[in-house]
Structure formats: structure tokens, C-alpha cells
């Protein structure tokens, strides 16, 4: 058993009966009036008042009012007061009577109306406040009545197979105990559900209502079985003691009466929470929240111990589960009680923390609104050395510091616990906020210390998250404390991030460039690219001041500073960048490639500088390819200058391309064929140059290549060049002007050798001829249409009436020459300004014949 939940207090230490044989048989307590039914037919009435004793606990004081004899030596087995009707229902000797609650006199017209009643129960779930429903048993019969101020009416009746021993009702559902079994009866439909048998020789037929449509009954093996109106169970059974003969439910506990004691069971786990010695107990009931137990001649109240005292007692035992169960059952409204509840929740949280149950501790400490400094103080490596916070007295816990806490298996590290707790109460990480802490508000006075501690924890355990955390505008920091924390641990990168948050960009960049140059070392420093990203959004002056350090570390990455800078599109920035990069040729070339090839710069200097740098690096095949692309695509190169620079190098093809760009095709082809002897390269040259030319120019270029083969400068190559010429014509016939080629061939040539080319020439000629004929016919038809239109316009008569006038000068046409627009608008000939534009409508006319 755990700490005490209830105290037993006498309400009536001894009832004065007329006979020593009289005993208390039934009890009812409503609106401050206590009714006792005796075994010999007497009904006693007492007034009861609740007061506070000297210790601050509640006690019930009684005073005798009156006594009424109801039956002849028969026990009063049932009492139920109905204040709304000013009526008390009494069952004495199997007869039901309705008495006035105040005078105990019979209600007119109701005296001894029902007889032969073995059990009676009131439906507590009835919704009508001005009537009451009672369920009674008469041997094998279950009968439902409705009582109001005027009459008692039969609602319905159901018959069972066995005599009824006990029953309880909830709406239309009745739980019934017979001598052999428990049943669920629906009095509306008559349906019966057989639950389970009652053990032979059992004397316990206990039934109590737990909530709407749910009952607790004494099952086999002393099990308390929960059953619903559907005959099912939604809770596990609880183990009861063997000699219980009364049970009641008072949330969240089940209370049972045995011959020697009162036992309190938890509805949640079924365990016995308290035992109260009470020999000779006869009745037990809960009356509007007040629990009364009676012996033969005394009445006692089972009064709950104030929850604060219960909680403190359980805290001393470190009984976490019972404290939480107690808090869950509370319905607190006063501010004072809410503060006490928070304090208890805080203490339970620290108990969980000391035991290593960090998840539960975090939840409780957050819900308890504990001062976060109470927890931070436990972390000597996190708390500020200048902190003046003094823990609460009396203390909430006995944890010396966090090093004494050993997390349970599966629980997070103690520093992870602190970080998650601080994030919960600050709600800076919305993804981690759970439903239980969604409404928690961090005290504004604590924001700075909480945010500073989060930054420290991020730096120690989650360095990748610190940057984004510091960027948040809502983060408030003790910058002096945090700067000392970073400096003492040589966190240079984090120091720079702190400077950046304080808008001290110059100091931040200085630290980062020191890390880039190797002057200082920090394992958390992300590298050169991180610094470049920061510089790209800062003032250009900082860029020029620190770019040398970055370029010396890595030219390929460093050039990104100029490419991605926010001012990279400005001409002044580009000129300064090119000047700065003179010392870094590799970076300068990459930057020029970006300007020319990617950004399509139209500045001639950029193109020429890039070409020169590529020429200087001509031994690199990548540079050679880029130079060819540049020469072929750029319109801003100084061709003669670059051609001069190429002399003495092995870049013959590039020289040929430059000659080709200047339309000096014969020189380029001579260089490639006669000097280098590279025929494939000559053909590639033609392809590259032809991509920028019109059809006629392409044909001329290919004809010049063919002419070199047909007229070699060295007769020793004549036969070889003849073969090349034939192959060129047959393979590229579609790129030649056929008539031009055929007219240039020697008369003694064998036509069969170029038959494939001739076929192409003929096909091209036929196609051109057909296209020309079609075009000619279309133009002729268009010309005929235009002439017809012109004749129709000019041959149409113009009728001029006396009232017609010039729309320009507003004068008539008598004796003058008239001009008329196609839309019918007429003017004097001398008033025409533009023959193609109507001066009235603005319509434009144009006809070409």
C-alpha cells in the first residue's frame, strides 16, 4: 500500500435507538440531511454540516432532527432522497413508500402503493430533473417506474427465469444478479445478455455503476469484472479480497467494505492504495461525492485527505506513478491550487530526472513551468560563470549536479535532454514541439539565458545547427557570456558567427580568413566556400581586402567570390576583379571564361584577354579546345593581333580558323593542306567555318578546297590530291554548286569516277528547277490578282453629287479635279497629303503592281 488517501471521521459516534437490537440497515445523504433506516422499521433524520477543524481538515457535524416509524418490525432496506420532488423513497419490509423529505409524512396518494419488492435502485442517468426513474425487482420480474410530483407511472416490465438478488440501472440497461449468474437486460427491447455464472455457495452479489452503461460486478475468483451494456469489457479485471460484501465507485477509486476494514483500489492499475480499519461495517455508499460507512450504531465519513498532503506524502516516497495519477484526477480552479500543482509537478520532474527517466522528466518540468535556471544550474559547463541565480528554497530536488544522473536505457544523453527541454519552452524549433507543451510560454525575463544556453549546446553537440540558430531574429543572447564560452574553447568559427549576428562583419571575416590562411585552426570551420558565400553578400571593399588570402588558398574556389558576388554585374566591379586577379592567372582565366562564355560579355578586352591566356596555355588540350570555341564564336576578337601571337606556336588549326574568320579561306586551306598535310583537319575547318556562312559562301568555301586538290602547288602530290578531290566530291556533293564544279573539271576526266556526285548534282538541279517553276507560277498568279484588283478599283465610276464636299477643306467639287481613296473618301486633288493614308479613317493603302 502507498500513502493515505482518506481519513475516517465520525459523523454520528452512536445512534440512540429505542431498542438495543436495532441496527442501521440503510443510509441516504442529500442537501445536508442524513437519513438512517433501521432494522426495526424506524427512519431517523439528522442535519449535517461540513466544517474545518483546527488542523484545516474537513469534518462533518450532525444534529438529530426527528424519528419516524415506517413499518412494523421490518427493516428499511432502501432509502433515496429526491430533493427536486421533496420526496424520499423508502422500501420497508418489501413495501415502497414515498415520504416528505422534511416531515417524513407519507406523500398523499402514494402510501404502500408497491409491495413485494426485493431490490430497488434509482436511475442516476435520467435526464429529467423533475421526475425520477426507479427500477425494482419482484421475484423474477424487473419493473421500471417513473415518479413525478403527481403520480408514479409504470414504464415497462420484463420477466426473467430466476429470482433477482441484486440489480443496478443505467438508462435502459440493467445489470442483474440472480442466484446463479449475472445478466445484462435491456428493458426497452427485452434483450438479455448472459455474462458469466456466480460461483456456488457465493454470498456476494455486488454490482456498482462505474459510469454510463458500465458496471463493476463480483466475478469468479474474487475478480472485479467490468462489463458494458453490450456485455463486453473495456478494462482489465481487478483482484478483490475474498470477503468484500459492498463496493462503490468514487473516481478514481473503487472502495470496498469487508467485515474488518475499508479497502481503496485504484481504477487505473487495480492495486490496493489504502486500507482503513473498520470492524463491523454494514453499509457503504457515496452520496453526491461524500462517502459514508456505517456500523451497527455509528456513522462515519471517509473524507479524502487534501490532495496537496497526499502528493507531498507520495513525493517523500518518490512514488511517481501515484502522484501523476492523483494530479490527473484533479479539477483545479483556484490560482493558489494551480501554483501548488505546478510545484508538485516540478518536484516529480526532478525525481524522474534523478532516476534517469529523462523523457518523462522533460515533459513534467515543461508542464510544471519550472524556472529554467533551476535546471541550467545543474550544468556547470553550460551555466554562466557570472550567474547570480539562487535555487528555490526549500529545494525542488536533491541533485548535486547533472554528473550524478545516469540515464536509463533508451533515454537521451543529459545534454540532449537539456537542449530539447530548452527548445520546448522556447518553441524555437517548431518541428520538435509536442502537443503537451504547445501552450507553454517562456517568461521574457528568461529568454536571454535560455537562448544563450541553446547556442552553447549547439556549439558543443550540434555545431551544424548553430549557424541557422543565430540567424533567427527572435534569438536573444548574452553575447559577453557566449563570446567567453567560445573563446575559452577555441571555437574561432563560432566567434565569427557571433560577430556576424552583431553586424560586425569586418571582425567576422577577419577570423574566417585567419582560419583559411592557417593562422588559427578550428575543426568546426566549414572551409573556404563558406567564407566566399559570406563575402558575396557583403560590401565590395571587404571582398578586395580579403580576396588575396582566399585565392592563395585555392584559386579555383576563390574565383567564385567574383563570379557570385552581389555586385558581379557592375562594370567597375569587373574591372577591379580583373586587375586584382593579375597575380592569380588560373583564377583570372576562369573568371574571363565566365565573363565571355557564360555571361556573353560584349567587351572586346575580355575576349582578347581570354584568348591570350588560352594561347599561353596552348599545351593544355582543354585550353586548346576552349580557344577554338572562342575564335569560332566570338565577334569581339582582334584577329590580326591574335594571328600574330599564334606565330611560332603549334596552334596551326587555330591560326587557320582566324584566317577563316577574316574570309582568307585560301590561305587557311593552304596552311592546313600544303604546309601541314592534314586533310581531315582541312575538312573540319570547312565545317567549322561554314556553320557561320550562308549557302552561297559555303559552296564557295568547299569549291576553294576542291580547287586546291585539282591544282596542287606540288605536282608530286597530283595523283594523291586527285583521289582526295574525287572522294571530296562524292562524299560532300550536296555542299557544292554542281554547275560550278563540273565546269572546272578537266576535259579528260572519267565521268564514271564521280558518278555519285553527278547524281546528287542532277537531283539538286532538278529540285531547284522545280522550285523555280513553282515560285514563278505563284508570283505570276499573284501579279494577275493584283492587276485585277487594281482594274476593279480604277474602273469603277465615281458619282459626285452637288452636296458632296472635300473632307479636308469642306468645299464642293464643282470645276475641280477629284481624288478618291479605295474606301470611298473623296478630296480635292490639291488637298491630298499622303496618297497611302486616308485622312478621315487613318487606313493605310498599298498596292504594288
Describe it.
By secondary structure, the protein is an alpha+beta fold. The protein has a 4-stranded antiparallel β-sheet with strand order 1-27-26-25, with no helix packed on it. It has a 4-stranded antiparallel β-sheet with strand order 2-3-4-5, with no helix packed on it. It has a 4-stranded antiparallel β-sheet with strand order 9-10-11-12, with no helix packed on it. Helix 6 crosses helix 7, helix 11 runs antiparallel to helix 12 and helix 21 runs antiparallel to helix 22.
| Fraction of helical residues | 25-40%
> Helix tally?
27
Beta content comes to 15-25%
The rounded Rg comes to 54 Å
Q: Tally of extended strands?
A: 29
Q: Choose one word for the global shape.
A: elongated
Mean pLDDT, to the nearest integer, reads: 88
Distance between the termini: 119 Å
What structural keywords apply?
single chain; 849 residues; alpha+beta; 4-stranded antiparallel beta sheet; 27 helices; elongated
Topology:
Layout: E1 6-12, E2 24-30, E3 33-38, E4 42-52, E5 58-69, E6 76-82, E7 87-92, E8 95-100, E9 119-122, E10 132-138, E11 141-147, E12 152-159, E13 164-170, E14 173-178, E15 181-186, E16 192-197, E17 207-211, E18 214-218, E19 223-228, E20 238-239, E21 246-250, E22 253-257, E23 261-266, E24 272-277, E25 283-287, E26 290-294, E27 299-304, H1 307-316, H2 320-328, H3 335-355, H4 358-367, H5 372-376, H6 414-426, H7 447-461, H8 463-471, H9 479-488, H10 492-501, H11 505-517, H12 528-535, H13 540-553, H14 555-558, H15 560-563, H16 571-580, H17 585-598, H18 604-616, H19 621-633, H20 639-646, H21 652-661, H22 665-675, H23 679-690, H24 695-710, H25 718-731, H26 738-744, H27 755-795, E28 818-820, E29 826-828
Antiparallel strand pairs: 1-27, 2-3, 3-4, 4-5, 6-7, 7-8, 9-10, 10-11, 11-12, 13-14, 14-15, 15-16, 17-18, 18-19, 19-20, 21-22, 22-23, 23-24, 25-26, 26-27, 28-29
Helix pairs in contact: 1-2, 1-3, 2-3, 3-4, 4-6, 6-7, 7-8, 7-9, 8-10, 9-10, 10-11, 11-12, 11-13, 17-18, 18-19, 19-21, 20-21, 21-22, 21-23, 22-23, 22-24, 23-24, 24-25
